[in-house]
Design goal:
Elements lengths: L9 E2 L1 H16 L3 H11 L3 E2 L2 H17 L1 H4 L9 H21 L3 H10 L4 H11 L7 H10 L5 H13 L5 E6 L2 E6 L12 H17 L3 H16 L3 H7 L5 H17 L5 H7 L7 H18 L7
Parallel strand pairs: 1-2
Antiparallel strand pairs: 3-4
């Protein structure tokens, strides 16, 4: 998201609902700098609801007043690794003190993790469990993740948590109706640590959407991260790792069209195929990628990831 004007971009009701949900998540998790950046972007676009624009503008003014240090911070940029480490260490110390005061705190976090009715609570619990020194947590996390087919995003976040806790070894999981084997230590700690051929897919979408569908850029990154969590370790993921470079366009085009269809209530298949240069030789790969993306989108946009 840049500071460019997007007056030609119209935010449809589904799009507005998505952004409202994202803003709520950011505020609940005190990600005020990201919320400010997103609101600035939204206010450069046009909404069909003037009331929503007024609410966004009021919220932006309030955030900039209450959190002036975040006002000039660029989303996702300028962070100092040493500062991040310091914050992580402070959180760890806070959790140690919390556990000393309440010996059952780790058990309470595990209960929050097992509460599948709240995805946010599960994610917050995992953030804390990754830093706690409770000796029995590793075994409890492994037993839980192996006990059944949890939400794909929670499964992936649990693998990341185990990796951060120093756990290594092969683990068998049930993902998307499939039994998969993954090495815990191979789990990417962040989305930008996936193999380069995977990351080039989202880079291709960003390149195309910046010119043709500017409002799509934010959705593309967020949705791509969720898709990677959804597919990680599965047969389809292993196939993606072995794909040739021409297939990057096929996957990028598939996600682009699915987002247009699901979020913007638009999308022209022939136009997207032309934008990404999908020739007859790539059509079969595109159809396979599109089918997998549709399967993911059915879970995501009908109440899965976004609820």
């Amino acid at each position: 998201m840049t500071g460019k004007s997007h007056d030609n971009v119209i935010l449809f009701p589904k799009t507005v609902d998505y952004y409202q949900f994202e803003l709520t998540r950011m505020l609940e998790n005190e990600r005020y700098g990201e919320a400010i950046s997103l609101l600035r972007f939204l206010l450069t676009c046009r909404s069909q609801d003037e009331r929503v624009e007024e609410e966004w503008n009021a919220l932006l003014q309030w955030l900039q007043t209450m959190f002036p240090d975040e006002t000039f911070a660029d989303f996702g940029a300028g962070s100092d690794p040493e500062d991040e480490l310091s914050e992580r260490d402070m959180l760890r110390e806070k959790l140690i003190l919390r556990e000393r005061e309440d010996g059952s705190y780790a058990a309470k976090l595990m209960e929050s993790l097992k509460d599948a009715s709240s995805l946010e609570k599960q994610l917050l619990a995992l953030d804390q469990l990754a830093l706690m020194e409770h000796p029995e947590l590793n075994g409890q996390l492994i037993d839980w993740i192996k006990s059944g087919e949890q939400h794909p995003l929670i499964q992936y976040k649990t693998l990341q948590t185990l990796k951060l806790r120093g756990v290594q070894g092969l683990i068998e999981l049930h993902r998307n109706g499939e039994s998969v084997l993954v090495e815990i230590e191979d789990t990417p700690a962040d989305f930008d640590q996936f193999p380069s051929i995977i990351n080039e897919i989202i880079e291709r979408i960003q390149q195309v959407s910046e010119t043709n569908h500017p409002a799509l850029a934010y959705f593309a990154q967020e949705t791509w991260n969720e898709f990677l969590a959804f597919i990680y370790g599965t047969y389809q993921y292993r196939q993606m790792l072995r794909m040739d470079r021409d297939a990057i366009d096929a996957w990028a085009a598939a996600l682009h069209l699915v987002l247009l269809e699901r979020v913007f209530d638009s999308g022209d298949k022939e136009e997207i195929l032309e934008l990404y240069g999908i020739t007859s030789e790539l059509l079969f790969q595109w159809e396979q990628a599109y089918r997998i993306m549709q399967q993911f989108a059915s879970s995501t946009f009908s109440g899965g990831f976004q609820r």
